[in-house]
Amino acid sequence: MRFADIIGHQQVIAALRRLLAHGEDTGTFLIVGEDGIGKGALAEAFAMAAACLNPLRDPFDACGQCGSCTRVQKNAQPEIVTISPAGELTQIWQFWDREGKPPGVLQHALGFAPTIGRRRVFIIERADTLTEAAANSLLKVLEEPPPYVLFVLLAPHASRMLPTIISRARMLRLSPVPVQELAERLQAVAQVPADQARAIAISSGGRPGLALSLARTEGITTEMDRILDWAEAIPTAPALAAPKIADALKGFAAGGRPSAADAGPGAAEDGAAGDRLGRGRAAAVVDLATILYRDLLVASLNRGTEALAFHHRSDRVLALAHSAPPRLWASCVEALLKARRRLDQNVSVRIVLEALAAELVAICAACKPERGIHRTEGRMA
């Protein structure tokens, strides 16, 4: 991944290119932005350019051909290391040797100058999950790293970071990419039609990572329709139907159809389907459901249909949106966002989806009297 391959974030990239051109690419950087915004891709491009032996100069970028770059492209550059959480947290033993644990990545690399590329780069994938012990152990090296070391920390929100870490880093904030810009790049990169590219750009909330994931999902329109089928069944579902609603979600996360009507008792609960529950797939399902419920919230506030991600089914979205008050849809969005965070925290996929289904059913059940009034008032109007 090179800077030239990044979708959006051109101001941030320009700033990084200036730093690289002036040799100011060591020290500690903190890249902040919501999930799917492209933090990982930008960190990879930054690392690749910093380590490149023969970088392009105008504008600054990795050459893509030197020994370091070719290793990066094969995911085999040992001097560029990504540290991911070990479970829910990023632990001290991942950096420094501790008895009974694998070798710490900093313990055995920090003191040695690079031999393959120009820099050693350490990317901390979820710096917001650092334990207090791990964070405190990094303070000195983050503040005064060796002259050949670059630390790149990634986090969804700066508020989740320890102030002592933030104070030692140069912060870069990533914002959503404008819909038109994102749609045009999706057409070029993912080879999707213009109308579909725009729908995906809107659906993703301007997050290139999520947009690319949606664009590369075979039959995305069909999947959107299936999520809508699933959502339409929830407002009238009794509390006892929560397991069936959850089964539908789990079936979808396992690669099946997300329709509550198609999910029999116990579907995707045990056996092969249950074993196939993937965190990435489950996250994509929750993201798509969140997009739908945001549409429902927008439609319930009479904001028009132009901004709807599910615009190809605007009639169904409007009908469902006006069957309940905006408060209900807002609560559902909150429940979905909470489920997404729990997936990011490595909570069991099965537990997350079952809890989400139960919460959505409970939210709708609590608003049933109000929904009836809402529908009556709508007809009288």
Classify the oligomer.
single chain
* Radius of gyration based on Cα positions: 23 Å
Helix count, DSSP H or I runs of 4 or more residues = 16
- Shape verdict: globular
Total count of domains? 2
* Main sheet properties: 5 strands, parallel
If classified by CATH, what would the architecture of the largest domain be? 3-Layer(aba) Sandwich
Summarize model confidence as the mean pLDDT.
85
Unreliable parts: 257-276, 371-381
Describe the fold and architecture:
This protein is of the alpha/beta class. It folds into 2 domains: 3-173, P-loop containing nucleotide triphosphate hydrolases (Rossmann fold), CATH 3.40.50.300; 217-380, no CATH class. Helices cover 50% and strands 8% of the residues. The protein is built from 16 helices and 7 strands. It has helices at residues 10-21, 39-51, 67-73, 132-143, 163-166, 179-190, 194-203, 208-215, 220-233, 242-253, 271-275, 279-300, 314-321, 326-344, 349-366, 368-380, and strands at residues 27-32, 56-57, 60-61, 80-83, 120-124, 149-155, 170-173. A 5-stranded parallel β-sheet has the order 4-5-6-1-7, with helices on one face. A two-stranded antiparallel sheet has the order 2-3. β5, α4 (132-143) and β6 form a beta-alpha-beta unit. α10 packs across α15 (349-366) and α12 (279-300) crosses α13 (314-321). The longest helix is centred in the C-terminal third of the chain and has 22 residues, at 279-300. The radius of gyration is 23 Å and the shape is globular. The protein starts with 9 loop residues before the first helix and ends with a helix. The model is unreliable at 257-276 and 371-381 (pLDDT under 50).
